[in-house]
Automatic annotation (TrEMBL):
Primary role: Dual specificity enzyme that catalyzes the synthesis of pseudouridine from uracil-746 in 23S ribosomal RNA and from uracil-32 in the anticodon stem and loop of transfer RNAs.
Alphabetized Pfam families for the sequence: PseudoU_synth_2
Family of this protein: Belongs to the pseudouridine synthase RluA family.
PANTHER family linked to this entry: DUAL-SPECIFICITY RNA PSEUDOURIDINE SYNTHASE RLUA, MITOCHONDRIAL RNA PSEUDOURIDINE SYNTHASE
UniProt EC number: 5.4.99.28, 5.4.99.29
Catalytic activity annotation: uridine(32) in tRNA = pseudouridine(32) in tRNA; uridine(746) in 23S rRNA = pseudouridine(746) in 23S rRNA
GO molecular function, one term: 23S rRNA pseudouridine(746) synthase activity
Location of the Pseudouridine synthase RsuA/RluA-like domain: 38-186
EC class name: isomerase
Protein name, entry field: Dual-specificity RNA pseudouridine synthase RluA
Gene Ontology terms: biological process: enzyme-directed rRNA pseudouridine synthesis; tRNA processing
N-terminal signal peptide: none
PROSITE patterns: PSI_RLU (PS01129)
Amino acid sequence: MLFTDEEVNALNAQENARPLEFFQAFARDITIYEDDDIWIVDKPVGLLSVNGKTLNVSLLARLERVNPAVKLIHRLDMDTSGLLIFAKNAAAQTHISKQFIERLPQKKYQARVFGQWESIGATGKISVPVRYEPATKPRHIVDHDWSKHALTMYEILAHEECNGHAVTRVMLKPVTGRSHQLRVHMVHVDHVMIGDPIYAEGTALEIAPRLNLHAQHLRLKHPVLGAWMDWESPSPF
């Protein structure tokens, strides 16, 4: 989602003028779980995870208005909705960040892709490197010569229709966490995510009002309790 300089200035001014009560209500509405150490929220589509270079409207900035101690751990693309975990102190941030480095957390995304892809129940993996392509900013591309691999596991959930066109509902499990990994991997198998403003074109873009990608499931170890914990967010599409 791209904004003009005038739109950015207007959005920043609007956000700065909001009262504390707005941010408190926003936080209550998106909170899935909260304790003294962690904060699990359901990020709305169309909202940055952190402030951009010029746009100062983001999930982190809004949560900081409610609790200035909140700390970032990972991100979702602006066009993606779903579960994000924030830390509420430095120790929790360090503990969970190490889990992500060691690839211990388990994340599952639900997506709808254009066309009919494989049979229901089919599983597989996509293992091709993904990198940023400056010539087509903000796109990423598959580059088989790139040194950092990217691995996604998938399961076909259902064959559906969206506005009269065949689409496939799929569960995606990223093993690595490259930027735009899931979106680019779907392009690679010729089943772009519907409604994707960056990678979809024509009918695949137009049949859905938003990117059909949602972070549905998150599982990790609590930084203090040491127990594995799971959270779910139903798919909004």
